[in-house]
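Researcher: Structure prediction, please.
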Amino acid sequence: MPDTTTDDELVPRRRPAALLVLVAVVGLEFLAMAAVTVFLLVELLTSPAAGIASGIALLVLAVLATVWLGAMVAGLRRGRAWVRSGVVVWQVLQGALAIGAFQGESRVASVGWALLIPALLGITLVLSRPVTAALVRRD
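Model: Predicted structure follows.
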């Protein structure tokens, strides 16, 4: 039986450092979002909620965001082209949350910086030339 494996499949592509850093940034965001989801679940189960419906809705949104980030990490690790748009959307949303953390009556600058720095790093990396080249569609 002839070997039908292409040379590209035999020699793994070397991933650029920018892509590895992006995987780490989005992976850490995924872990943080998973921790927030667990926290919200524990709070919903243990604390009396003023509005049970809003608590459940917030938990569902947190679960969806965690699953989304998990898909982004998996797509980045596999070098899929479709992941770029999802990562950009997440970084923009995270940046908007960071700006909100800097403003208003309950502003917490440390939370704002903790959200803004990875968002800026992530959007810079996902739009960088090495990451764009590594994630280009291959048919």
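Model: The two ends are 25 Å apart (CA to CA).
Researcher: Thanks, that helps.
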